[in-house]
Amino acid sequence: MFGGIAKKMFGSKNERFLKTVWPMVETINGLEPQMQELEDADFPAKINQWREEVAQGRSVDELLPQVFALVREAGKRALEMRHFDVQLMGGIILHQGRIAEMKTGEGKTLVATLPLVLNALSGKGAHLVTVNDYLARRDAEWMGQLYNFLGLSVGSIMHGMTDEERKAAYAADITYGTNNEFGFDYLRDHMKFYADQLVQGELHFAIVDEVDSILIDEARTPLIISGPAEDSTAMYKRINTIVPQLKRDRDFNVDEKAKTVTFTEDGVARCEQILGLENLFDAQNIHFQHHILQALKAHELFTRDDDYIVKDGQVIIVDEFTGRLMPGRRFSDGLHQALEAKEGVKVEAENQTLAQITFQNFFRMYDKLSGMTGTADTEAVEFNQIYNLEVSVIPTHKPMVREDFSDVVYRTQQEKYEAIAQEISDLYTKGQPVLVGTTSIDKSELISNLLKKRKVPHEVLNAKHHEKEAEIVAGAGERGKVTIATNMAGRGTDIVLGDGVRELGGLHILGTERHESRRIDNQLRGRSGRQGDPGSSRFYLALDDDLLRLFGSDRISGLMQKLGVEEGQAIENKMISRAIENAQRRVEAHNFDIRKQLLEYDDVMNQQREVIYTQRREIMASDDLESMIDEFVDEVVDVIYQPVHMADKEGPDQETLDMVQAQLEDVFGLKRWLDTSAGLPDQETTRETVRKILAHLKEEAGEHYLEILRFFLLESLDRIWKEHLLTMDHLKEGIGLRGYGQKDPKQEYKREGFELFQDMLFRIKESTLKALSHLRLQRVAEEELKHKEQPQDLNYSGADESGEAQKTYKREQPKVGRNDPCPCGSGKKYKRCCGQ
């Protein structure tokens, strides 16, 4: 109650904040006459002047009024578009590192130009992150006219670009691209071997368009770069034949809310019988358990034409939030292979993670991050807790006049869809355009079939027909147009009303069910009523909709019975609408917990990733790697000799001495350099001998020594980091069971993850020294190289500047059997590694 009184007296927190921004808007307006007097040639000159001032230490904050006023005038001349006052307000908020919530049609694309130009003055680049290639290309070309008028360069990052093209785009003052491309470029850069191969540069300032879609909806899916693993694909086909022999609720239970499948005791026994196993939970059989559960998930929880489609013999994921196809993306942990086996298409080999990062951790690396969207306020708490971003709601340029009708609820799906088809038919007859929002492909096609029976012409926009997306959406406001679309999140195209449509009531939005998130519903509603246009919206629901069935059906069904609702009759009731909204809040809270937990686990990996990637960049750029190798020698020798020092007063036994000597031979190959027949050499002698080995290598390699060190440091780091990622994946998969032992799984994951990381760092040092100690160099004439096939165990090659001869650096390979461990130290069998 007191909060309500205070709000009336002092205004909301958002209103109070906007009042502090307004004086800056008035200052910018005051500079407009001055900017109007400038010649066109003066605009680049002004930008260059300010760029020099920033380089000399002037703050971009001081320049904000002048820069914004200049950009506004440039917009008028280059685009015939003048920034409104509320757009200036949005630009200020974005520059301050906040989220600007602006309704659809309020010109977010133009708003972004203001802070992008201001922050580009630093020379460190400014990024605009959007949801698809089409928008990135469109906006870079469209707003590029303004940037070029100011003398600034603009680039865009597209799927399929070469490294050279990417490097050029990142070198521009302002760069547009998708969240995936920015994230994958970061990961790819940390898999390169040479500093001149890096493309991305600094992560200085970013504006994330459709920020809720990218930082919240997609936050549960980490970006992963993977390579093929050695597992056989035949396993998935075999397991797929077992699924029909298992019965739901008898052999396994399905939790649709949590999207999980668990065995019953009878199910475990039945699987053991089918597979001929004594114990399904035995360590050597654990992979069977995993694959069967994934196959059951594929059959019970994933639906064709809803969660994925099958196209050209491939299973392609459908984005649950936007309805877009996601070619190239694959479900992890063998689930995608289980779906391929289910659908009878070619089962691709399972991949092993080489590099990964969540969007949460990637975008938190920017020095300054901001975002814009039409719907962020419902997720303000999450933006604040996860990203430390405040949400500011910007008022519309013209008052909002759209009418949002109450939901109508029916008993069954059939009743609901008949009512929807009738409503669309009536609106079509009237001539009022209607945009129908569905949550899945099959539901959009169901409505399409119902309309065909009624001979109502319409367009269908879903993941199967996305090529003409922008054209279809742009025309959805024409008289008599009926457009059926899967989720409208982040579509990015304004719907402009055709002639005579305003008089008919504008664009009508018809939602076929409530989404799990209120924000997605608001995004759909927001397609109508842009810039003061008339419009309307209504959602149609049924008691057996997924949301109501899983999260609120009993209470709502009870209310409908009390109200005496008959078959075919709909009801509009505030109590029911409130119960539905509460159900959505529960789902939103549940999904927030999932994202938060993912982040808490990934924070452990993120700390490790930052250490590894920082070390990697140092190795790539440093000209003094010898001191790093020298430290490795001291540490590795110390660790190998530890068992000797830890022995009791009587000294180490012969077994310990033999073990230490064998390890020294394995890592350094001391027998070629030191007489070890008398027993274990002392620690200092070993240390000096290893340094002699490295000194000899340096003498042989000459000017190539630094690059040899760099190559083997990076090779060892990458290989062992990749193995570590797999180990951490396995640790996370089983860590939840620690809860049964009264231990906090997250704390256990942190503790064990740290121990594994320490072990990994040592193995990188040991592996690097092992490679260098066993290296043999031979000089090969260039003509010989042209005609002779390169050996399979070639690890590194580089030409000297004269080009007359080339040195090939090659590990000495002792004779080994095909099933013996590979001498390169990879941990694989020789036949699977260098002996392939």
TrEMBL record:
Domain named SecA family profile is located at 3-572
User: Which processes are annotated in GO (biological process)?
Assistant: intracellular protein transmembrane transport; protein import; protein targeting; protein transport by the Sec complex
How is this protein positioned relative to the membrane?
A: Peripheral membrane protein
Location of this chain's protein in the cell: Cell inner membrane; Cytoplasm; Cell membrane
Reactions accelerated catalytically: ATP + H2O + cellular proteinSide 1 = ADP + phosphate + cellular proteinSide 2
Q: Start and end of every Helicase ATP-binding domain?
A: 89-247
- Is-annotated flag, keyword Cell cycle? no
Sequence positions that bind ATP: Q87, G105, E106, G107, K108, T109, D494
Q: Where is the composition biased (Basic and acidic residues)?
A: 807-818
Look up the EC number in the record and give it.
7.4.2.8
The UniProt entry's GO CC annotations, sorted and at most eight, read: cell envelope Sec protein transport complex; cytosol; plasma membrane
Q: Which SMART domains match?
A: SecA_DEAD, SecA_PP_bind
| CDD domains assigned | DEXDc_SecA, SF2_C_secA
List the residue ranges forming a coiled coil, or say none: none
Q: Which GO terms describe its molecular function?
A: ATP binding; metal ion binding; protein-exporting ATPase activity
Q: What is its main location?
A: membrane
Q: What this chain does, per the record?
A: Part of the Sec protein translocase complex. Interacts with the SecYEG preprotein conducting channel. Has a central role in coupling the hydrolysis of ATP to the transfer of proteins into and across the cell membrane, serving as an ATP-driven molecular motor driving the stepwise translocation of polypeptide chains across the membrane.
Q: Self-association or partners: how does it assemble? A: Monomer and homodimer. Part of the essential Sec protein translocation apparatus which comprises SecA, SecYEG and auxiliary proteins SecDF. Other proteins may also be involved.
- Family designation: Belongs to the SecA family.
Protein name as it appears in the record = Protein translocase subunit SecA
Q: Which organism is it from?
A: Desulfohalobium retbaense (strain ATCC 49708 / DSM 5692 / JCM 16813 / HR100)
Q: Its gene?
A: secA
